[in-house]
Design goal:
The chain has 163 residues and is an all-beta fold. It has one helix and ten strands. The termini are far apart. Residues 13-19 have low confidence and may be disordered.
């Protein structure tokens, strides 16, 4: 009689132990930062648990080089290839990030390789097909004497689409 009234598989509340999965792919447009003026990037998340994930990003963009002529300031364009790996910690949609990044520059600029520490805030959606927002700063680790004509902005904004 007890098993008829209280079957073994019946519970008052259903426990959902499955972790909510965030979208692991994102395509972003970054404005400033990373040694570029504008870049198009692909980002992949590698979840560690519900509070931590590692993010890897690679992209292509362009920057402006600063060249001083006798009569005017010319700013030719150079190609940039930014990449980074960051550790993201947070809860829900809000994450702090810290990591390392580098950018390869192709053009008449020095240096051709930039490397920097990344500190930022990331708003990352819980479900796919939504917008992500990233605000970040870059602490450049290159020697300032190596710079000839590159214009490096130490902060940036990224808007992305997750899937």
């Amino acid at each position: 009689m007890f098993f008829v009234l209280f079957p073994p598989g019946l519970s008052a509340q259903e426990n959902n132990t499955r972790l909510q999965e965030k979208p692991e792919n994102c395509v972003t447009i970054s404005l400033l930062g990373d040694g570029s003026n504008v870049s198009l990037n692909y980002e992949r998340l590698f979840p560690l648990n519900s509070y931590l994930f590692i993010s890897g990003r690679i992209g292509t963009g362009y920057g402006r080089q600063l060249t001083l002529n006798s009569d005017s300031i010319a700013m030719p364009i150079y190609l940039s290839v930014p990449a980074h790996v960051t550790l993201n910690a947070g809860k829900g949609r809000h994450y702090a990030e810290i990591g390392m990044g580098n950018t390869i520059t192709i053009g008449n600029v020095n240096p051709h390789y930039l490397y920097y520490v990344i500190l930022g805030y990331k708003f990352y959606p819980l479900t796919p097909y939504n917008i992500s927002i990233r605000i970040f700063g870059n602490l450049l680790l290159n020697n300032e004497n190596d710079f000839r004509n590159i214009y490096f902005v130490p902060f940036g904004l990224s808007l992305g689409y997750t899937f």
